[in-house]
Amino acid sequence: MLELMPQSTEAAVALLARGKLTDTDYQQVLIPRLREMIAKQGKARFMMVMSPEFRGWEARGAWDDAAFGFKHRKDFAKLALVGAPKWVKWSMDVSQHFMSGEVKNFAAGQEEQAWEWVTA
Hints:
By secondary structure, the chain is an alpha/beta fold. Helix content is about 40%, strand content about 30%. It has 4 helices and 5 strands. The chain has helices at about 25-40, 60-70, 85-95, 110-120, and strands at about 1-5, 15-20, 45-55, 75-80, 100-105. A 5-stranded mixed sheet has the order 1-2-3-4-5, with helices on both faces. β1 (about 1-5) and β2 form a beta hairpin. The model has no long low-confidence stretch (mean pLDDT about 95).
């Protein structure tokens, strides 16, 4: 499940990920918000906080993530991951070579530092 975090603004979005991410999470929460941000300011600023209950993606959710990320790989200014498991960090390390924006991993509990970085 993806949950919009209270510090989100029109200029930057923060989401909390719990359990397994689904197609519904992407179609109703993440993608519309990022599309709107990209349309208004040209680039997205995004922070995803992965709770200890984060368990990855359902197949369709993983497809949504990959497809949107590939299509918009040049539309991110900054992307911060907070508390990501090693396998997600590894995946982002590979993916960032195809993106034009900055990607940075933060340890669990570093939401404030990540948000400051994303919004700077």
